[in-house]
From TrEMBL:
Protein name from the UniProt record: Ferritin-like fold-containing protein
Sequence ranges assigned to domain Ferritin-like in this UniProt record: 16-176
Pfam families assigned: MiaE_2
Organism: Amnibacterium endophyticum
Domain of life: Bacteria
Length: 218
C-alpha cells in the first residue's frame, strides 16, 4: 500500500480555515487560563506571551476567512462542539500538567495542520503552513516544565503519564480534519486509513521527541 503524504491531500479551504481558527481560539483560552493559575510572576508572563501569540494567529486566520467573504463565527461553528469536547476530555489537571498539555497538543496539531494546509492553493496554503510553523513560545514552556521537574522529582512520572494520555485524544482531532479532504474536482474523498497511518505515526514520533527533550518517557 503506497503511503500518502498530508500535502498530497486537498483540504477544503473554508473548512480547514474554520477549524484552525477555532482551534487557535480554544488554545488561546486554554493558555490564558494556565497563565491565570500561575503562582510565579515570571511563569505567568511567559504563558501570557504564548496566549498572545495564539490570539495573533487566530486573527490572521480570521483575516483569511474574511478575505473569502466569510464571517469567522459562521466558519468556526461546525467545529466548535467537537473541539470543545476535546478540551473537556483533557479534563482538569495540575498546573504543570496544563503547561505540558499546551506544549504537546499545540505542537502535535500544528505539525499536522501545517502539513495538511500545504495541499491548499497558493498563496493561502503556504501562508497557513508558515503561520503554524511559527514558534508560539515553546521554549518558555519547556523551561517552566524543566524547572518544575528539577524542583520535584515526582513530577516527572506524573507528567510522563499525562503526556501519554494526551496522544490519543489529540490524534482524534487530526483524524477528524481528514474529513475535509477533497478530490481534484472539489468533491469529498475517502482517505484510506492504512495509507494515512504512517503519517500519524510520524506525528507520534515527533510527540515522543518533545517528551524526550523533557526527560519524560513517551
Amino acid at each position: 500500500m503506497e503511503r500518502i503524504a498530508l500535502s498530497d491531500l486537498r483540504p477544503d479551504p473554508e473548512a480547514l480555515l474554520g477549524r484552525i481558527a477555532y482551534l487557535r481560539l480554544a488554545f488561546f483560552e486554554a493558555a490564558s487560563s494556565v497563565a491565570g493559575r500561575a503562582t510565579d510572576l515570571a511563569d505567568r508572563e511567559a504563558v501570557t506571551g504564548v496566549a498572545r501569540a495564539l490570539l495573533e494567529q487566530h486573527g490572521a486566520v480570521v483575516a483569511m476567512l474574511e478575505a473569502r467573504g466569510l464571517g469567522s463565527a459562521l466558519a468556526m461553528h461546525p467545529y466548535s462542539a467537537e473541539i470543545d469536547r476535546y478540551g473537556r476530555r483533557l479534563g482538569e489537571a495540575g498546573w504543570h500538567e496544563s503547561v505540558l498539555t499546551l506544549h504537546l497538543t499545540t505542537g502535535l496539531l500544528d505539525d499536522f495542520f501545517a502539513a495538511f494546509a500545504a495541499g491548499m492553493p497558493s498563496p493561502e496554503g503556504p501562508e497557513v503552513s508558515r503561520l503554524l510553523e511559527a514558534d508560539i513560545g515553546h521554549d518558555a514552556l519547556v523551561r517552566i516544565l524543566r524547572a518544575g521537574i528539577a524542583a520535584d522529582k515526582r513530577l516527572a512520572s506524573r507528567l510522563a503519564l499525562w503526556g501519554r494520555r494526551l496522544v490519543g485524544d489529540t490524534l482524534l482531532v487530526a483524524r477528524g480534519a481528514l474529513a475535509d479532504a477533497r478530490d481534484e474536482h472539489g468533491e469529498p474523498t475517502t482517505t484510506d486509513e492504512r495509507r494515512v497511518e504512517p503519517v500519524l505515526n510520524d506525528l507520534i514520533a515527533a510527540h515522543s521527541r518533545r517528551m524526550d527533550a523533557l526527560g519524560l518517557t513517551a
